[in-house]
Automatic annotation (TrEMBL), chains A, B:
GO terms (BP aspect): negative regulation of DNA-templated transcription
Keywords attached to this entry: DNA-binding, Transcription, Transcription regulation
UniProt protein name: IclR family transcriptional regulator
Statement: the UniProt record of this protein carries the keyword Methyltransferase: no
Amino acid sequence: MDAVQDEAAGKRARGLDRAFEILDFLRQKRQALKPNEIAAQIGAPRSSVYELVNLLLQNGILEFTGGEGRVYLGRKLYFLGAAYENHFDFTRECEAALEQLADETRETAQFCMLDGNRYTVVRMREGARPFRISTDVGQSVPIPWTASGRLLVAHLSDQEILNFIPPQDFRLPNGEWLEPQTFIAEVRQAEREGLFTFNSIVDSFTHCFAVPVRGEEGHAAATLCLVTPRDDGIANRDRYLDCLKKAAAGLDHAPSRPKRT
Amino acid sequence: MDAVQDEAAGKRARGLDRAFEILDFLRQKRQALKPNEIAAQIGAPRSSVYELVNLLLQNGILEFTGGEGRVYLGRKLYFLGAAYENHFDFTRECEAALEQLADETRETAQFCMLDGNRYTVVRMREGARPFRISTDVGQSVPIPWTASGRLLVAHLSDQEILNFIPPQDFRLPNGEWLEPQTFIAEVRQAEREGLFTFNSIVDSFTHCFAVPVRGEEGHAAATLCLVTPRDDGIANRDRYLDCLKKAAAGLDHAPSRPKRT
DNA sequence: ATCACATGTACGATATATTGGACACAAATG
DNA sequence: CATTTGTGTCCAATATATCGTACATGTGAT
């Protein structure tokens, strides 16, 4: 519904929201930070951050690490994440699919999902020529920057897409502005064709292939992608797409199916 | 400090604490539940639980699954847990150690840690005779019930141990009462010897071996364990302990060492 | 039909969590 | 030496989150 909640000025933030904002921020930074630094960088009152950090420390959600009072994500989060992974048991099948893709194509293969209203690489298998991939596993990236993004929002209406994606995420990394209507047209095209491919707009030398992995609700719960050198990708387009579709078929309905019961 | 905080009557619970209580409860249950059921089973006001569940749903911390409005741990927790695992990169080395133990002993090997003030099996490798192990991976268990428990609290003073472990956890599964002083004596013995072994008090047919894996602070951050049939365990005691110590030495200082930086 | 129960929603009262600002201290900077 | 910056703690004010209660619904039992 309200994708952006922190727009009103002079309003107090809810502790829970702030807490998860802190956790997400630490995940993005991927390093331990002092409460003071966190407060400054997320633009939250220092006293609130100190209070919340202490609460989270007591719960094992955060841990002291790196010295100097720095904190990072805690063990409890690992346990909770492991329980999620155990329930929605996509990991094993996912790894097998990536393995298969890597074997057949020798290219870099990725398993991607939405993280809130952004895109993230959940698992990756490096290809035979491991060139520098621009997005690391676990980093969240604006949806419009990625081929997978076209598939992951395809179940939403045009208006829902516009509400869902933060407006500033249509600003591409090279500074250009991607017209939302252009993006939506690509989404609809991807939806019809059941795939999306393009020359990456994050770098200037890769071609990206994405196909949907469908969940219980029938829409794309995740995607499988290949990231290839541009020449290679264009030369092997049909074969690569076949490999992707085959691998995705093996995962379909898996990501949201409980392990048992 | 204050291990038990929900003792005072007529006091409001803090949303954050309640929220993580809900998450932990779902993890213990390992299944999706309706908000109503959660409220009833953790003894929290229904209106509060509905409010919190909705907040957590909006944040992706919880997800609808299983129909009928049931909720379970969400994808965001998986991402946060993965970030923790990536930072404190014990997984790879841990798996190798378990593999090695399983090869050398053919017995069930476990990697265990504290989860707050209880004990949990983080990873397990089934042995050649996979009999029914009483504790599953991810379930949390009273510290006094386990061999590892003796090692995991050994860095605390006697008084700290008593404050740390919930009093009711000294009630053993067979109904007997384990005198805290007896437990503490065993803790000190384990600390001196750098190991603890006993016939399991959870079941009646296994023998347990535990050795510490030391973290940066020098005390047991985790343990490696073997769970064996009693005869086997007693017959091979010395060899098994050697295997454990060797494997633990390979992990020492690893659990809390960042991958890089 | 009547009752009991499970489930979800709505709302007001009040206990309290969030917040800005003051304070203390150390370290860096001029 | 004076000043600025970074860090953490403490405190009171008030906006609001929590919680009891009431209400609405569906379902199954008696």
